[in-house]
Protein backbone atom coordinates (compact mmCIF):
# COMPACT_ATOMS: atom_id res chain seq x y z
CA UNK A 1 0.00 0.00 0.00
CA UNK A 2 1.42 3.39 -0.88
CA UNK A 3 2.03 6.23 1.56
CA UNK A 4 -0.70 8.21 -0.22
CA UNK A 5 -3.30 5.48 0.43
CA UNK A 6 -2.14 5.25 4.07
CA UNK A 7 -2.63 8.97 4.51
CA UNK A 8 -6.06 8.71 2.89
CA UNK A 9 -6.99 5.83 5.23
CA UNK A 10 -5.84 7.76 8.30
CA UNK A 11 -7.94 10.73 7.14
CA UNK A 12 -10.88 8.36 6.57
CA UNK A 13 -10.56 6.92 10.10
CA UNK A 14 -10.31 10.42 11.59
CA UNK A 15 -13.44 11.43 9.67
CA UNK A 16 -15.28 8.37 11.03
CA UNK A 17 -14.29 9.27 14.59
CA UNK A 18 -15.49 12.85 14.03
CA UNK A 19 -18.76 11.54 12.57
CA UNK A 20 -19.19 9.31 15.63
CA UNK A 21 -18.81 12.29 17.99
CA UNK A 22 -20.84 14.73 15.90
CA UNK A 23 -23.87 12.42 15.64
CA UNK A 24 -23.64 11.16 19.23
CA UNK A 25 -23.17 7.57 18.11
CA UNK A 26 -21.48 4.95 20.28
CA UNK A 27 -20.22 2.61 17.56
CA UNK A 28 -19.51 2.72 13.85
CA UNK A 29 -18.26 -0.12 11.66
CA UNK A 30 -17.20 0.23 8.01
CA UNK A 31 -15.52 -2.04 5.48
CA UNK A 32 -13.83 -0.35 2.53
CA UNK A 33 -12.93 -2.53 -0.48
CA UNK A 34 -9.96 -1.43 -2.60
CA UNK A 35 -9.65 -4.48 -4.79
CA UNK A 36 -9.77 -8.23 -4.78
CA UNK A 37 -7.12 -8.74 -2.05
CA UNK A 38 -7.08 -5.28 -0.47
CA UNK A 39 -9.57 -3.86 1.99
CA UNK A 40 -9.80 -1.78 5.13
CA UNK A 41 -12.12 -2.74 7.97
CA UNK A 42 -12.63 -0.12 10.69
CA UNK A 43 -14.62 -0.29 13.91
CA UNK A 44 -14.76 2.87 16.01
CA UNK A 45 -16.28 2.57 19.48
CA UNK A 46 -16.96 5.36 21.96
CA UNK A 47 -17.52 4.54 25.59
CA UNK A 48 -18.15 7.37 28.05
CA UNK A 49 -15.51 7.62 30.78
CA UNK A 50 -14.05 4.22 29.90
CA UNK A 51 -10.70 3.64 28.28
CA UNK A 52 -10.78 0.37 26.39
CA UNK A 53 -7.37 -1.23 26.03
CA UNK A 54 -7.02 -4.65 24.44
CA UNK A 55 -4.43 -6.59 26.37
CA UNK A 56 -4.06 -10.14 27.57
CA UNK A 57 -4.50 -10.56 31.29
CA UNK A 58 -3.59 -13.73 33.20
CA UNK A 59 -6.73 -13.73 35.34
CA UNK A 60 -9.42 -11.40 36.60
CA UNK A 61 -8.63 -10.12 40.06
CA UNK A 62 -11.26 -8.50 42.22
CA UNK A 63 -10.41 -5.85 44.78
CA UNK A 64 -11.64 -6.52 48.31
CA UNK A 65 -14.78 -4.67 49.36
CA UNK A 66 -13.95 -1.23 50.77
CA UNK A 67 -13.99 -0.95 54.53
CA UNK A 68 -16.22 1.81 55.89
CA UNK A 69 -14.17 4.65 57.29
CA UNK A 70 -11.92 7.50 56.22
CA UNK A 71 -10.25 5.60 53.35
CA UNK A 72 -13.50 4.85 51.49
CA UNK A 73 -14.26 8.44 50.30
CA UNK A 74 -10.68 8.88 49.05
CA UNK A 75 -10.88 5.60 47.09
CA UNK A 76 -14.22 6.65 45.58
CA UNK A 77 -12.76 9.99 44.43
CA UNK A 78 -9.86 8.23 42.68
CA UNK A 79 -12.23 5.74 41.01
CA UNK A 80 -14.33 8.55 39.49
CA UNK A 81 -11.37 10.59 38.21
CA UNK A 82 -11.39 10.65 34.41
CA UNK A 83 -7.89 11.23 32.98
CA UNK A 84 -9.41 12.27 29.63
CA UNK A 85 -10.99 15.29 31.34
CA UNK A 86 -7.70 16.45 32.88
CA UNK A 87 -6.54 19.76 31.31
CA UNK A 88 -3.08 18.30 30.68
CA UNK A 89 -4.32 15.08 29.06
CA UNK A 90 -2.68 14.07 25.80
CA UNK A 91 -5.29 11.99 23.96
CA UNK A 92 -4.88 9.57 21.10
CA UNK A 93 -5.55 11.09 17.68
CA UNK A 94 -6.22 7.62 16.21
CA UNK A 95 -6.82 3.95 16.83
CA UNK A 96 -3.64 1.88 16.91
CA UNK A 97 -0.87 0.37 19.01
CA UNK A 98 1.08 2.65 21.35
CA UNK A 99 4.84 2.33 21.70
CA UNK A 100 6.78 4.24 24.35
CA UNK A 101 10.14 3.84 22.57
CA UNK A 102 11.39 4.03 19.00
CA UNK A 103 12.22 0.32 18.85
CA UNK A 104 12.12 -2.71 21.16
CA UNK A 105 14.77 -2.50 23.86
CA UNK A 106 15.44 1.23 23.29
CA UNK A 107 14.98 3.83 26.01
CA UNK A 108 11.48 5.28 26.31
CA UNK A 109 10.87 8.70 24.74
CA UNK A 110 9.73 10.00 28.16
CA UNK A 111 9.08 8.73 31.66
CA UNK A 112 7.16 10.10 34.62
CA UNK A 113 8.94 13.28 35.72
CA UNK A 114 10.47 14.01 32.29
CA UNK A 115 10.38 17.63 31.19
CA UNK A 116 9.09 17.94 27.61
CA UNK A 117 8.86 20.77 25.11
CA UNK A 118 5.89 21.47 22.88
CA UNK A 119 6.12 19.31 19.75
CA UNK A 120 8.58 16.81 21.26
CA UNK A 121 7.76 13.18 20.39
CA UNK A 122 6.48 11.44 23.52
CA UNK A 123 5.34 8.14 21.97
CA UNK A 124 4.48 6.43 18.69
CA UNK A 125 1.14 5.03 17.58
CA UNK A 126 1.27 2.40 14.87
CA UNK A 127 -1.82 2.50 12.68
CA UNK A 128 -2.08 0.49 9.47
CA UNK A 129 1.64 -0.33 9.48
CA UNK A 130 2.53 3.38 9.69
CA UNK A 131 4.45 4.71 12.69
CA UNK A 132 2.92 8.03 13.75
CA UNK A 133 5.01 10.17 16.10
CA UNK A 134 2.76 11.73 18.75
CA UNK A 135 4.05 15.12 19.95
CA UNK A 136 3.52 16.80 23.31
CA UNK A 137 0.68 19.30 22.96
CA UNK A 138 2.43 21.69 25.35
CA UNK A 139 5.65 22.11 27.31
CA UNK A 140 5.64 20.73 30.85
CA UNK A 141 6.40 17.74 33.03
CA UNK A 142 5.04 14.24 32.41
CA UNK A 143 2.95 13.48 35.50
CA UNK A 144 1.36 10.17 34.46
CA UNK A 145 1.73 7.69 31.61
CA UNK A 146 -1.63 6.00 31.09
CA UNK A 147 -0.73 3.38 28.45
CA UNK A 148 1.64 0.46 28.49
CA UNK A 149 4.12 -0.21 25.72
CA UNK A 150 2.54 -2.31 22.96
CA UNK A 151 -1.06 -1.85 24.12
CA UNK A 152 -3.91 -0.94 21.79
CA UNK A 153 -5.44 2.52 22.11
CA UNK A 154 -8.73 3.95 20.90
CA UNK A 155 -9.38 7.34 19.34
CA UNK A 156 -9.60 9.94 22.11
CA UNK A 157 -8.16 7.67 24.81
CA UNK A 158 -5.91 9.51 27.29
CA UNK A 159 -2.26 8.57 26.77
CA UNK A 160 -0.48 10.69 29.36
CA UNK A 161 -0.85 13.73 31.58
CA UNK A 162 1.52 16.66 30.96
CA UNK A 163 1.38 19.63 33.34
UniProtKB/TrEMBL annotation:
Top-level taxon in the UniProt lineage: Bacteria
Purpose of the protein: This protein is a component of the acetyl coenzyme A carboxylase complex; first, biotin carboxylase catalyzes the carboxylation of the carrier protein and then the transcarboxylase transfers the carboxyl group to form malonyl-CoA.
Matching PANTHER family: OXALOACETATE DECARBOXYLASE ALPHA CHAIN (PTHR45266)
Recorded GO MF terms: acetyl-CoA carboxylase activity
Protein name: Biotin carboxyl carrier protein of acetyl-CoA carboxylase
NCBIfam families registered for this protein in UniProt: BCCP
Gene name of this polypeptide: accB
Organism: Cypionkella aquatica
CC annotations in GO: acetyl-CoA carboxylase complex
Residues covered by the Lipoyl-binding domain: 87-163
Listed SUPFAM superfamilies: Single hybrid motif
InterPro entries per the UniProt record, alphabetical: AcCoA_biotinCC, Biotin_BS, Biotin_Carboxyl_Carrier/Decarb, Biotin_lipoyl, Single_hybrid_motif
Pathway info: Lipid metabolism; fatty acid biosynthesis
GO biological process, alphabetically ordered: fatty acid biosynthetic process
